[in-house]
């Protein structure tokens, strides 16, 4: 169901912004919909190549930009030199704890933080479209190793 909604939203976005609706763009979307968790563009491209896709690296990168613009995926920078992505459609708002030692990314939802964000926006007459909180440190596993 979410897959069909994502495809429909993407098709509408492409048409309304005068982008071509191509099979390659939807092949990238399909590969993303099959993924769980966070991924980067090269990881997605290599996975598609392993599955004998003919989609170019440039098409993957350009399609990721379009999917992020229309809200199907989210883009993050977790203190790395490249962007990571994850599906946004059909998922609740969440934030991230990032372990600087092992690279684990722990997702969490906290209603108090959501309320604070809403209150801050209201106090400043600000209309939020998106937000993310990233907390960097050491996960429990890495703390107990040292």
Class of the largest domain, according to the CATH hierarchy? Mainly Alpha
Mean pLDDT: 89
Gyration radius (Cα, Å) is 17 Å
The CATH level-2 architecture of the largest domain is identified as Orthogonal Bundle
Question: What class would the helix/strand composition place it in?
Answer: alpha+beta
What does this structure look like?
- The structure is a single chain.
- By secondary structure, the protein is of the alpha+beta class.
- The chain folds into 2 domains: about 1-85, Orthogonal Bundle (Arc Repressor Mutant, subunit A); about 95-145, 2-Layer Sandwich (Dna Ligase, domain 1).
- It is about 45% helix and about 15% strand.
- It contains 6 helices and 5 strands, in the order H-H-H-H-E-E-E-E-H-E-H.
- It has a 3-stranded mixed β-sheet with strand order 4-3-5, with no helix packed on it. Strands 1-2 form a two-stranded antiparallel sheet.
- Helix 2 (about 25-35) crosses helix 4 (about 55-70) and helix 3 (about 40-50) crosses helix 4.
- The longest helix has 15 residues, at about 1-15.
- It starts with a helix and ends with a helix.
- The mean pLDDT is about 90.
């Amino acid at each position: 169901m979410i897959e069909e909604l994502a495809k429909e939203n993407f098709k509408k976005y492409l048409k309304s912004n005068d982008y071509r609706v191509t099979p390659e763009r939807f092949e990238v979307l399909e590969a993303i919909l099959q993924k769980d968790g966070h991924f980067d563009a090269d990881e997605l491209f290599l996975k598609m190549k392993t599955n004998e896709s003919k989609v170019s690296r440039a098409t993957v990168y350009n399609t990721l930009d379009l999917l992020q613009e229309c809200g199907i995926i989210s883009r993050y920078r977790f203190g790395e030199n490249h962007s990571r992505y994850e599906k946004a459609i059909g998922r609740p708002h969440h934030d991230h704890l990032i372990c600087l030692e092992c690279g684990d990314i722990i997702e969490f939802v906290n209603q108090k933080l959501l309320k604070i964000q809403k209150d801050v926006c209201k106090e400043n007459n600000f209309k939020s479209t998106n937000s993310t909180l990233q907390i960097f440190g050491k996960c429990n596993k890495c703390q107990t190793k040292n």
